[in-house]
Specification:
Length: 353
C-alpha cells in the first residue's frame, strides 16, 4: 500500500513550542514511520525540507492540493481554525494537536458537520502503555468494582509564579493555550478513558485567582460522580481531582492517582507530573494493593521496542500504531473534552462574581 501523504502545518525552527519537531518528525522520519507515511508538503514552516516537499503560505492553497491525504496541524491553538478549516472544507483528513480550537464555540464551528472519523485529535495519552495497563487492570476485576478515585497533580514543568516570555499568552484565556486547557485537559482525558466521564453535576471545591493579570485559575479542584459506561466501575463511584500550578512539595511526586475498589486499590505515581506523553522514560510506577492478602505488587509495564528507538515525545505519535480494536481519539472526543472545559471555566467565572 502506498504511504499516506502528509502535510505538516507549523514545523518551525523558531516556534516557542516545538511539538511538531519533537513529537511528530522523529516518528515520521524513522524507518517504521516512512513505511506508512510520506511528508509531501509544509505550511507556515521554516524547516529545511528536501526540494521534493512543497511549501505553502496559504491554507487554502494547501487544501486544494490533490496530492495530500492527511493534514497535521501543530500551530498555536488560536490559529488551528484558520489553518485547518480549508482542509476540512475540502474533505481532507485532519490531525489536530490538542486543544481543538481556542474555545468550545470555535471548535463546534470548525467541525461543522464533519464526520468524527474524518479527523484525529491528539489526546494521545489515552493510548499510552501506562493507560492501557490501567484499563486492563480495571477490567480484570483485580480490585473489584471501582468505588472512588483521587487524583493529585501539579503542572510541575512550569515555575510557580513566572512564565517564559514566549509563553506569556498562557495568562490570556481567550487564546486557548494555558495549563488548564493543555495540561489539565490531557490528564483528565486519560483519567476519563480509564474510569469514564463524570455525571453532569460536579462540585467545584476551590479556586485561586491570586495572579490578577491572569484569566486562568491556578488551582482547580473538582468532585463528582462517575457516569455509567466503563466495566467494573460502581454505580455511584466518585472522582476527586486537584490540579495546581507549579511544583509539588520538594521531594514529592507531581502526580499521585489512586483508584479504590472493593477488593483492592491501584496507585499510579509519576515523579515529574501528569504529562505522561513526556515522561515515559521515567520511573512511572503502578502498584496494586490486594486487600485480602494485604500485599502490594508493582505492576510491570513497558513501551514497545519501536517506541524505545524514538525520543520520548514522539513515542505516541505513530498514527495507526494503536493496539488492535482500539482507536485514536477522534473529533467527537475533542468536542466532549471541550464541553467539559467550557463548563469548568463557566463555574470558575461564576465563583468570581
Amino acid at each position: 500500500m502506498a504511504p499516506i501523504r502528509i502535510a505538516l502545518i507549523g514545523l518551525s525552527s523558531a516556534a516557542k513550542t516545538s511539538w511538531a519537531a519533537e513529537g511528530h518528525l522523529p516518528y515520521l522520519q524513522s524507518a517504521r514511520g516512512k513505511s506508512s507515511y510520506e511528508i509531501v508538503a509544509l505550511l507556515n514552516s521554516t524547516f529545511r525540507a528536501p526540494s521534493s516537499v512543497k511549501t505553502y503560505g496559504d491554507p487554502a492553497e494547501l487544501a486544494a492540493d490533490p496530492d495530500i491525504d492527511l493534514v497535521v496541524c501543530n500551530t498555536r491553538v488560536d490559529t488551528h481554525y484558520s489553518t485547518t478549516a480549508p482542509s476540512f472544507k475540502a474533505g481532507k483528513a485532519v490531525y489536530i494537536e490538542w486543544p481543538l480550537a481556542e474555545n468550545l464555540q470555535r471548535s463546534t464551528e470548525l467541525l461543522g458537520n464533519q464526520p468524527s472519523e474524518k479527523g484525529i485529535i491528539s489526546l494521545q495519552i489515552r493510548v499510552s502503555t501506562v493507560v492501557l495497563k490501567l484499563k486492563e487492570l480495571r477490567a480484570s476485576d483485580r480490585i473489584g468494582r471501582v468505588l472512588s478515585s483521587d487524583v493529585s497533580a501539579f503542572s510541575s514543568i512550569l515555575p510557580r509564579d513566572a512564565l517564559p516570555e514566549g509563553l506569556s499568552y498562557f495568562t490570556d484565556r481567550t487564546i486557548g493555550g494555558n495549563p488548564i486547557m493543555i495540561g489539565y485537559a490531557h490528564m483528565i482525558d486519560y483519567v476519563h478513558e480509564v474510569l469514564g466521564e463524570l455525571t453532569p453535576k460536579v462540585k467545584i471545591l476551590g479556586k485561586d485567582d491570586s495572579i490578577l493579570t491572569s484569566g486562568v485559575p491556578d488551582l482547580l479542584a473538582i468532585h463528582g460522580q462517575l457516569a455509567k459506561g466503563k466495566s467494573n466501575v460502581g454505580d455511584k463511584a466518585t472522582l476527586t481531582v486537584t490540579w495546581r500550578s507549579g511544583q509539588p512539595f520538594k521531594g514529592s511526586p507531581g502526580l499521585v492517582w489512586t483508584i479504590n475498589g472493593e477488593k483492592g486499590e491501584i496507585r499510579i505515581t509519576s515523579p515529574s507530573g501528569p504529562y505522561l506523553q513526556l515522561t515515559l522514560d521515567e520511573p512511572i510506577k503502578i502498584e496494586l494493593h490486594d486487600f485480602e492478602s494485604d500485599e502490594v505488587q508493582e505492576i510491570e509495564w513497558d513501551c514497545k521496542d519501536w517506541q524505545k528507538e524514538l525520543p520520548t515525545p514522539a513515542r505516541l505519535s505513530g498514527k495507526g500504531e494503536v493496539e488492535k480494536e482500539k482507536e485514536w481519539p477522534q473529533l467527537g472526543d475533542a468536542l466532549t473534552r471541550m464541553q467539559e472545559l467550557d463548563m469548568r471555566f463557566a463555574q470558575y467565572d461564576a465563583q468570581k462574581l
